[in-house]
Structures are given as C-alpha cells and as structure tokens.
Amino acid sequence: MNACDLEEGDPSERDDAVAEFVAQSDGRLLGVAGVDLTHPVQAVRELRRAVEELGFVALRIVPWLTPRPAQQSGRRRHSA
Fold first, then answer.
1. Which residues form the Amidohydrolase-related domain (predicted)?
2. Closest CA to 43 of 19, 68, 16, 10
C-alpha cells in the first residue's frame, strides 16, 4: 500500500485500510485518520470512529486539498 492507493474514496474505507496496515506493524506504527473537511458532520463522525474503534491517535489535515472560501481583503476589485 502507498499513499496513492488511498488518496481517493470514502474516508472510512481509507481509514479501514490504514488500520489493517497498522495492525500488521507489530505496534511500530500508529493510525492517523483522514476525513473530508468539506462535510464537517461526517468528518467528526469518522474521526470519532477512527479513535474509538480503530485506535487512531491523530487527524491528518491537508490544507491544499480542502477548498477554501474566497479570501476577503480590504481592497475592492474593479471590473474592466
């Protein structure tokens, strides 16, 4: 398994795959959850499941994969 195998898909499926990988490490690795921050309610549910059921210890947040609202600034934009 590599990172490319887990980039797309349902966060719970990715976390399950990571949990299987961690389980094979004889305690050398710890699980880190990944959630879809564009769906906050589901993200909290998945994080809770990952910690309570899978024994994960952290949440991976990748800012450049999360869409951001348009940045607000003090400058006005003028159309041409």
1. 8-63
2. 10
Q: What is the 3-state secondary structure (H, E, C) of the chain?
A: CCHHHHCCCCHHHHHHHHHHHHHCCCCCCCCEEECCCCCHHHHHHHHHHHHHCCCCCEEECCHHHCCCCCCCCCCCCCCC
Per-residue pLDDT of the chain (80 residues), as tens digits, is 555 455 567 889 999 999 999 999 999 999 999 998 888 999 999 999 999 999 999 999 887 766 766 555 555 555 55
Residue 53 is which amino acid? E
Tokens of 45: 């549910």
